[in-house]
Amino acid sequence: PRFALRKPVTVAMLLIATLVMGALSWNRIPVQLMPEGYDFPYIWVWMPYQASTPRETERGLVQPVEDALETLPGVRKIEARAARDFARFEIEFDQDTDMDEAWSGLVDRMERARLELPDDFEDYYVYKYNPSDSPIIWAGLTYPSEAADPVFIIDTEIKRALERVAGVAKVEFNGAHRARIYIDFNRESLDRHNVSLYQVMQLLQKDNFTTPSGKVDADGRVVLLRSIATFESEDDIARLPIGGGLVLEDVAQVIYAQPASTTIHRINGDSAASLEIFKESGANTIAVCARVHEVLAELEANAKLEGYGVHPFFDQGKLIQESVDNLRDAALQGGVLAVFVLLFFLRRLRVTLIIAASIPLSLLMTVIVQDVSGDTINLLAMMGLMLSVGMTVDNSVVVVESIYRRRELGSSPREAALEGTAEVALAILAATSTTLVVFLPMVLMSEDAQFSFYMGKLGLPVCFALAASLLVALVFVPVATLFSERPADPAPWIGRLTAGYIRVLDWVLRKRSTAFAVTLVLLFSMAYPMMNLDESDSSSGGIIDFVVGMEFPGSFSKREIDDTLRRYEALFETKRDEWRIKVIRARRWGGARRGHVMVFMEDRERGDLSKEEIEELLPEVIKDVEIPGVRAWAGWRSQGRDDNRLSIALHGDDSDRLVELGDQIVSRLELVPGIVGAEVDIEDSNEADLISIVRKHGRRKEDL
Hints:
Helix content: 40-55%
Shape: elongated
Radius of gyration: 35 Å
Mean pLDDT: 82
Oligomer: single chain
Number of helices: 22
Number of strands: 22
Low-confidence stretches: 537-543, 638-643, 682-704
Strand content: 15-25%
Largest sheet: 9 strands, antiparallel
Distance between the termini: 65 Å
């Protein structure tokens, strides 16, 4: 404080520099959903192996690869799954393992194990997880069902337009297939004209090529030549001469169409694909998402894309913007409340504004530290900033009150600023330190590296903000009070409040046993609601999107599965206005026996059905669509089918014995009241997955 009072110009320049640096840091610091910098100690290996049974996969792939991976340093656990057509490995490493070295070592072990793998095994894939690899926008893309080749339009018009957006790293879509040329030969025509199918196939391959043809030197210039002989249209293929005065269309039909697929994907009844947009590392998520939405609006206005539409399901930019807005609103509300409370006690506007200014100034200093240290503004950092909003004003309040008390006793403004600040400096330093030590042990002393990392991203902004508030209170506030008005005379009610407090304190000191007993009663009265508070293994939050999952009998055809999905789509279409439904998405992957209808609702407003009311209605609503053999369940998107099932995992070395035990468990579970069905998920005729799924409906897991 003495330095600040002696060098007011220096303090003013420091304040201006802080404001300028804070503005620059706020504008350039990356904004994203989750913090970067932590390497998850997990690596996944995927090994596709077509036309194999789980037993063949276990013996041919899993066992030799497990033997090789067990020699990796730092491995804590290896979990392998042998299934039909693939093997999957999840390798967990120690917390302090260098994941780059672990990746290199794992690839080395996999290459060594190749010598023991079956000859017909082709390749494997290695994956690591990074939160920054998640898409910033996940959306559904609808297209006209009558379109001949929608993927070509999506690829050339929509995908490329989005890839040109500044900050977008890549754009991926799936769920739709490129149209192809199919040649349907007529066997009778081939025999009648004595045409060899093998020779026709050779002609097709020879007449469709692009190849280098040499170069031409002329006047010191070199011109490269290419021979181009590719088919340009269906007619070119149909008119291909095949000998004997015949062309291809005399013995075959050339068809341009999309490939047959068992995958089903619809949004609001229209054919659809999934669209995922990823941002570049270090790019501002909010800015990138805003630019993407601008391009999407331009694409929707493009006449060439009539019938195409984009339906966002998840938008990181919107989520982060809402968090930023919440931080701003919390800061404004806290500042306004602080102004009124301080004005109520101090009854001086200028000094009240001085104290209130410590909130944004402390937060601005925190943003500077985040930017200089190479960190980002993310959900955890913003949670820390919101936690610190109310605490940053405390030190300034204590300093100002001490300074004003000195001035009331007759000291000059400068003496009051120096002596009043010095009097409470040690107290506010100790108080701030006690708050800091709550967060620092969790950040610095935890054995769990992941917990330490994320607690650091949450706790360090709080520590920075509190340290900044201490600096503001000891340096800037004493100088600012020199320009404030004289203290107001104490209000009469403050004197009465002080006298009442003195009487209560005197009673506590005289009746220590009684005060101790009252304290115990209060503690026990607080313990009772804490002991009886409901607990849950998940939080619902503000999630308003639910899923209806279905499991189909193995005998169901694609048409029957499609009809079932359409019936659920039609059911929720009747609830669109009442439940404020925005998007209805039906999905079934490949030949899977499971499908789902995901319902995305608009933001809830007062007067609409609440989540709890919809949760009560859902079981009864889906009963309106009861199809023999189809099992259906409903849950919120964060829960999915897990809300309606219990899983039992069997562990052992003998998979045949585990299958036998699984069958015995299932036969007994089916007799338990409240269970609708139980099963062992069979991978092959004699092989089984080691997970038994127990399903129930209409009752809570705790009741079961």
